[in-house]
């Protein structure tokens, strides 16, 4: 029987073959890693004086924000922060 490279059902033929992928270097499971990283991100943000807000928008607005952010080479969060700052300056000047 010939060995087919696409055939992964006969595991004994591929026991010594290294599969590409992300090496496991962290002993924690992925879910615990995500919680740990998120906690550290929130600590960094607080140290920088940033607060988190949640905003829900429809798909059309999200698409426009993504396109504009790409054109201006900004992240979507940076774009939203810039737009809000501009609107608040206009509001303060009235």
UniProtKB/TrEMBL annotation:
Superkingdom of source: Bacteria
Domain Ribbon-helix-helix protein CopG as annotated: residue spans: 52-90
Compositional bias of kind Basic and acidic residues: 1-20
Residue span of region Disordered: 1-29
Cited Pfam families: RHH_1 (PF01402)
One GO BP annotation of this record: regulation of DNA-templated transcription
Name used for this protein in its record: LexA regulated protein
Organism (species): Oceanisphaera profunda
């Amino acid at each position: 029987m010939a060995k087919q490279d696409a055939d992964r059902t006969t595991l004994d033929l591929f026991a010594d073959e290294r599969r590409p992928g992300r090496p496991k270097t962290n002993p924690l499971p992925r879910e615990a890693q995500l919680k740990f990283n998120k906690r550290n991100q929130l600590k960094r943000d607080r140290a920088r004086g940033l607060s988190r807000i949640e905003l829900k928008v429809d798909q059309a607005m999200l698409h426009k924000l993504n396109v504009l952010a790409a054109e201006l080479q900004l992240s979507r969060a940076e774009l939203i922060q810039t737009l809000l700052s501009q609107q608040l300056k206009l509001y303060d000047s009235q």
